[in-house]
Amino acid sequence: MVIFRVGFLLALMMAACAPARLDRMPIKAESPAERRDDLTRAFEGENDEHAARNLGLWLSTAPPEGTTVNGIAVRFHTGENGIYSRDHFDRLEPALRYDVDGLPHHQGPGIGVPMVGYRANRHREPREQWYSDKLITRAVTAVALPSRTQDGQRSVEIRLYDRHKTESISVAGRRQTLAWDFSVPWAAQFEKSRPLNEIGFFSAFRWKAPRPAGFILTEDYDPRRTPVICIHGLFSTSLVWAELTNEIWADPALRQRYQVWHYLYPTNTPALYSSMILRRQLEELRKSLDPDGNDPAMKRAVIVSHSLGGLLAKSLVVKPADAFWDAFFTRPINSLNLSAYERQTMEDAFFWKPCPYVDRVIFCSVPFRGSTWAKSWVGKLGTHLIVEENRFQRFFHSVERKNPGLIRPEYRSLAEKKIASVATLSPEDRSTEVFGSLPLTPGTASHVIAGAHDLVVPPSSTRIPGAESFIKVPSGHGSFDDPKAIAEIRRILALPPAR
Predict the structure, then answer these.
(1) 82 phi-psi bin (left φ>0, alpha ψ -120 to 50, beta other)
(2) Where residue 334 falls among pLDDT bands split at 50, 70, 90?
(3) How far is CA 32 from CA 36, 37, 73, 381, in A?
(4) N or C terminus of the chain: which is more exposed, having fewer CB within 10 Å?
(5) Does position 204 have pLDDT exceeding 80, yes or no?
(6) What is the rounded distance in angstroms from the CA atom of residue 278 to the CA atom of residue 263?
(7) Is residue 237 within 8 Å of 16, Cβ to Cβ?
(8) How much is the average pLDDT of 170-176?
(9) Cβ atoms within 10 A of the Cβ of 351, count?
């Protein structure tokens, strides 16, 4: 049993590993004449395998604006919503150069050639603060549209379509689907995301997390499509959503309806604290992307959550009133000696309002009634090893010093010693009891997925009153990644809005 539990702890650690990588594929050599002829045919509107391949390879050489090939003048579209300008990316590569290892490789036929656009994140645009830290990759489909200049010279316009925003285009009066490959750009992003591993298991044992909590938009923001916000669990990172994201993008109906966002946070602090940060950052994100509040995308959202992340997700759709405050403290907030900052923080942490724009929440292996694992020797070891952020401790120490006797005896640890996320997941913890008892706001749809062989959170602890659906999948604690769970999530996403 001891060996099993240690092995299980190591399994949690491995859950944060980057799930995909790219294998470079050999490309059949052609003579210069063959390459030139195939590229010319691509510029003339041909879209067979050889023409498309050579168009992609030619674009990867970063040809300058104004190039002429075989008497054909080449120009690039200057860019607009759904079409990238040539200088938007640092480089382009054809997706056909790679195969994906660790994820299903989803791709589809159509006109144009699927490309990977690479852009170093130098925060050249305000929205890039919400994209991947260092490198942004995008699924691009390059299309060559032949034409003639005013003086009759043959010409071609190259358009670099954002494949997430454009499914088809009109060519010669006929609507045609664009070729696509979302898996290669996605795996390219994950290959550059390996430092995120540290934020999962190992960051829990550091004073300062390698990366602060925040959202990661996996594609360019689209004001029309509904966000699917994925929130990971304990000892984990947003890397765990690789396969679900890949599957959503592979479904034409879902990718036209949704955009996928990930939320990343250090998992050493209690859910009550992390959920406060989540709510603040979600409001900041909404105001940044949609300052006028007019975007259809911001009218509703779907949350997919796992384990500890499910408690953060639930905080978005409940109204706690005095429930948490009365559990922690002995006196009402209005009677306390607090600075303006302390009062605002306490109100944000304990008296928040539900988010009216969250439409559905999918809870995967969420410990609504706690986890007996949290109070086992493995959980106690985790609590002992986890390093709590100093800010969290200092804040309550300052409040208690100015208001002696404020904190109830069972929560003296808020001001005196560390209180970690693992400890607060115990079924005997009062905050867990409160979280479990709060009803969801009316109109919010909920769905539950549980692992039939979960030794961390038993299915009985995952149930939530009023859920529209409840299924068990043949998995352990990582229920969200089971094929049956992914199929269930796709089924739920295909449902009409809850309100």
Answers:
(1) left
(2) very high
(3) 6, 9, 20, 65
(4) N
(5) no
(6) 8
(7) yes
(8) 92
(9) 15
> Which of 99-113, 193-207, 313-327 has the lowest average pLDDT?
193-207
| Residue 139 or 407, more confident | 139
Q: pTM of the entire structure?
A: 0.89
Both tokens assigned to 390: 């100093």
pLDDT at 433: 83
Q: Which of 263, 268, 294 is nearest to 279 (CA)?
A: 263
**Other Cβ atoms closer than 10 A to 259:** 23
DSSP 125-175: SGGGGGS-SSEEEEEEEEEEEEEE-TTS-EEEEEEEEETTT-SEEEETTEE
- 3-class secondary-structure state, position 178: strand
Helix, strand, coil percent content, the chain, rounded in steps of 5: 40, 20, 40
Q: What are phi and psi of 402, to 5 degrees?
A: -85, -15
Region 167-171 average pLDDT: 95
Contact residues for 311 (Cβ-Cβ < 8 A; gap 6+) = 271, 275, 366, 367, 368, 435
Distance CA(386)–CA(170), nearest Å, equals 57
Which residue in this structure is represented by tokens 């690789």? 242
Tell me how far CA of residue 299 lies from CA of 227, 296, 302, 442, in angstroms.
Answer: 10, 5, 11, 16
* Rounded distance between C-alpha atoms, residue 454 and residue 458, angstroms: 6
Whether residue 254 contacts residue 408, with contact meaning beta carbons closer than 8 Å, is answered with no
Q: In terms of residues, how long is the chain? A: 499
Question: Do residues 130 and 217 lie in contact, with contact meaning Cβ atoms separated by under 8 Å?
Answer: yes
What does the pLDDT read at residue 193?
Answer: 65
Nearest C-alpha neighbor of 20 from the set 185, 211, 254? 185
Positions of E strands within 312-436: 358-364
| Of 108, 60, 95, nearest in space to 184 by CA | 95
35-90 pLDDT, tens per residue?
A: 899 999 999 999 999 999 999 999 999 998 888 988 899 999 999 999 999 999 99
d(CA 439, CA 324): 14
The whole-chain average pLDDT of the chain stands at 86
For residue 402, give the H/E element and its range: helix 390-402
Task: Place 408 in a pLDDT band, splitting at 50, 70 and 90.
Answer: confident
Nearest to 190 by CA among 258, 130, 132, 261: 132
Q: What is the pLDDT of residue 10?
A: 42
Q: What is the CATH number of domain 2-17+193-319+354-386+421-493?
A: 3.40.50.1820
Inter-helix orientation angle 271-289/308-315, to 10°: 60
The H or E element spanning position 347 is helix 340-350
Domain ranges of the chain: 2-17+193-319+354-386+421-493, 27-125+135-181
DSSP state, 471?
E
Question: pLDDT grade, residue 371 (50/70/90)?
Answer: low
Distances from the Cα of 134 to the Cα of 106, 236, 256, 380, 467, angstroms: 25, 20, 27, 36, 39
